[in-house]
Amino acid sequence: DGRSDGGRKKLCAPAADRNKQPILEALQKLIPKSARVLEIGAGTGQHAAHFAQAEPSWTWIPSEPDPQSLESIEAYTSGLNNVLQPVDIDVAAADWPGTAAACAGGEQVDVIYSANVVHIAPWEVCQGLIRGAGELVKPGGCVIFYGPFYISGQSFGNTAEFDQTLRSRNPTWGIRDVDDMVNFAKPFGFTLEECVNMPKDNFCVVLRRND
Questions:
Q1: Which of 46, 101, 159, 195 has the greatest CB tally within 10 Å of its CB?
Q2: How far apart (Å, rounded) are the C-alpha atoms in residues 76 and 63?
Q3: pTM for the structure as a whole
Q4: Low pLDDT (below 50) residues in the chain
Q5: Residue 78: other Cβ atoms inside 10 A
Q6: Cα separation of 107 and 103, whole Å?
Q7: DSSP string spanning 12-30?
Q8: CB 80 within 8 A of CB 55
Q9: Which of 86, 93, 135, 82 is nearest to 112 (CA)?
Q10: In 3D, which of 101, 74, 96, 108 has the Cα closest to residue 6?
Q11: Positive or negative, the Cα torsion across 5, 6, 8, 9?
Q12: pLDDT of residue 136
């Protein structure tokens, strides 16, 4: 299930291989050159490696709470000078922004990127991510969520079916409505900029920090 790289085991998520190029193309339109990007829930590290290779001017800061995933991220991103050491971050923890800032050299970031996280986690994880983004993202910067979403209660393709499956596995999981995310994000200085249509009924949801 994994390949070894210098003793570190690469995990492989087939979905990450399938969607990494379409997501990269969307991010290239959304993220400026020389941006510092914190990735929340970097998973295997396949996205981090693909994006950082394609855009050497970006500084990529991958994070994950899972030790095996952290090892896999290191294996994928080994040798890429624009990827910082993976950080152990759980956005449900109140002090996570301090941990992230310390690993980012004490600086704020231009972008927080999170793919396929908020629907396989309790709503508190989404709230914790947005709350922390209020501290970490520079004015004018943004948070980019990738994955399946409802928009004003509307579902797309098999989104509602997938939502039921998730909730049957764990009642605290579920596909989030962009409206709920936007309402929660407003007090932290974020507004909805756009929902970019992506393959297979997914979106890139862009929340821009205006203050």
A1: 46
A2: 13
A3: 0.94
A4: 1-4
A5: 14
A6: 9
A7: --HHHHHHHHHHHHHHHHH
A8: no
A9: 135
A10: 74
A11: positive
A12: 96
